[in-house]
Amino acid sequence: MLGFLYVNQGKLAEAEKMYEQALQEYEKALDLKHTSTLDIVNNLSLLYADQGKLMKTEKILLYVNQGKLMKAEKMYEQALQEQEKALDLKHTSTLCTVNNLDHLYVNQGKLAEAEKMYEQTLQEKEKALDLKHTSTLHTVNNLGHLYVNQDKLMKAEKMYEQALQEYENALDLNNVKKYRPALTTMTNRGDLYMK
To answer: Cα separation of 84 and 72, whole Å?
Structure first.
């Protein structure tokens, strides 16, 4: 969780160090197939991708970035099946994998499937975490972005406005302007208004 906090604060080098250390410890204590280990691998992969360190990115994201979308889809679906068995659909680790599968569907142009999964993910996150949780708001932003790709601009605007309002409620206006996910939502809303 400290790695996640560092990412949200923009301290990517510290987050990378925490995730790499956690991965080594999880592999020793558990194994690579354990859901907790897979969650760390996933977070580290996303961090590497955010930093542009594609050579270090775990196999799944490399497959995505190299256009091997079908292989990536199989890997995500397999991870999701294992997490649903070991945990359940409402567990945050499982929801993280569902969110990544949503991104993959968008990259594949499977927008209807992505929409269905994003909406399901949002419902589950609202139940498990609540609407004000930053992870839930990230999904609201992603759903808004998907709606833009589908030319559902009114729905997209609603999602962006909802996310920004909740970010302001949770963080206050001054902190929202410093919080990277909220800034992404602001940028996305601005891009929407330019259409």
So the answer is: 18
